[in-house]
Amino acid sequence: MTGRSVIVLGAGMCGVGAAYHLLARGFDVTLVDRGPPGRETSYGNAGLIQRECVEPHAFPRDVRTLLNIALGRGNEARYHLAALPGLVSPLARYWWNSRPAAYRRIVAGYEALIRQCLAEHAPMIAAAGADDLIMRTGWKLMAHSAESFDAEAETAHRLSRAFGVNSTILDAAAFAAAEPAIRQPVAGAIHWTDPWFVRDPGALVARYAALVQRLGGRIATGDAASLRRAGAAWSVDTDGGRIDAASAVVALGPWSGRLLRRFGYRYPLFIKRGYHRHHQGDSGLRTPVLDLQAGTVLAPMARGLRLTTGAEFARLGARPTPVQLARVEARARRLVDLGAPVEPTPWLGNRPCTPDMLPVIGAAPRHAGLWFHFGHAHQGFTLGPATGRLLAELMQGEVPFTDPAPYAPARFG
Pfam families under this entry (predicted)? Predict the structure, then answer.
């Protein structure tokens, strides 16, 4: 063990992003996960590196939206009754942080990370030989009513003025020409042109992990729950035996909070679950399309057309209840030529969310050598390399590329 040895717990996008940047700074890195890289939360998403997503998802504040969610009328969000007692406090804080004054400060911290996402993914994609997985075509948001189309167009103009985010406003005819596979007429669409689309998100993470190995890092199968302090070292048990290191990085996504409770940290993480399922063929779509009315992304992946769902609030490990996916599939059959399902059962994943919508990045407040890199909510796939760089800069003692204060672990006490 050397003073620059690091165990990174979690081989999703955030874990491999941190490992890559630590290796670039001369650290001795071992990446530890219970399964292959990129098979958990990073596997199940819309495959978007979302340069346009400069504003995180705020808590709905209008009564109509909240009532629709409470009564299960919409498809953007649903909840398990059993999970509500544990959600009251974090969701109340989430609601409070969504008020305009607080939200503006949060957006400033969020946008500082998002603006780096393409710049940090690009060299990793090149070095990993993963360009075949990338489509630099953006994605389209489809609005069915004139009212929602006008609102989304105004948002696109506002984000362009404020943050330089690029988009093209498509009226009904322009959208029909751009996506002829969509069978139903719509009011219009916003084509967000900056983001990149990844046709196999899990494969991209796996290639990043292979790059980590080529750069001298090691990948081990092990149990993050075995993390412990052993004298001056941090230790974890793996299939190849115990590994000791001077530092440990917790990048376990939704499982981070459970592990850290053993060390006296009680972060107010809450879970937004999501489902997806592939259907044979790509239905002729040229880019991913978000159906705003149904709360789903139709993404032409390598395995077929992936249909995603909105958020489901549930306990970590609760049984699957893919109600939203059934609605999404019924809706998609009316929109496109939908092939047969590829998987016998839907995929289910968990997103780790914080009440202030910002990730937790930095040194543990009370344990030397312990570092945190989690809480990215919907954007771990987008932000992993950028926040991995920030974490590595902090561990190296460099001047970070952005002020790390908004993401400091100590902000939750």
Answer: DAO
CA distance 206 to 307: 22
Query: What span, in angstroms and rounded, lies between the C-alpha atoms of 408 and 361?
Result: 6
372: amino acid identity, one letter: F
Q: What's the confidence (pLDDT) of residue 59?
A: 86
How crowded is residue 226: how many other Cβ atoms within 10 Å of its Cβ?
15
Cβ-in-10-Å burial (0-12, 13-18, 19+) of 368 comes to exposed
Place of tokens 């050397």: 2
| Rounded Cα distance, 113 and 109, in Å | 7
Q: What is the pLDDT of residues 188-237, one digit of tens each?
A: 999 999 999 999 999 999 999 999 999 999 999 999 999 999 888 999 99
* Three-state SS at 144: coil
How far apart, in whole angstroms, are the C-alpha atoms of residue 9 and residue 12? 9
pLDDT tens readout for residues 245-270: 999 999 999 999 999 999 999 999 99
pLDDT at 73 over 70: no
Phi/psi of residue 353, nearest 5 degrees: -115, 150
Q: Would you say 1 and 233 are in contact if contact means Cβ atoms under 8 Å apart?
A: yes
Q: How far is C-alpha 34 from the chain's CA centre?
A: 20
For 62, the token pair is 């209008």
| Of the candidate ranges 22-26, 59-63, 290-294, 380-384, the one whose mean pLDDT is the lowest | 59-63
Q: How many residues does the chain have?
A: 413
In whole angstroms, how far apart are CA 169 and each of 141, 152, 160, 283, 335? Answer: 10, 9, 12, 23, 21
Q: How far is CA 22 from CA 68, 129, 372, in A?
A: 45, 20, 14
3-state helix, strand, coil in the chain (%, to 5): 40, 25, 35
Query: Model's pTM, two decimal places?
Result: 0.95
Contacts of 75 (CB under 8 A, 6+ apart): 294, 295, 296, 309, 310, 324, 327, 328
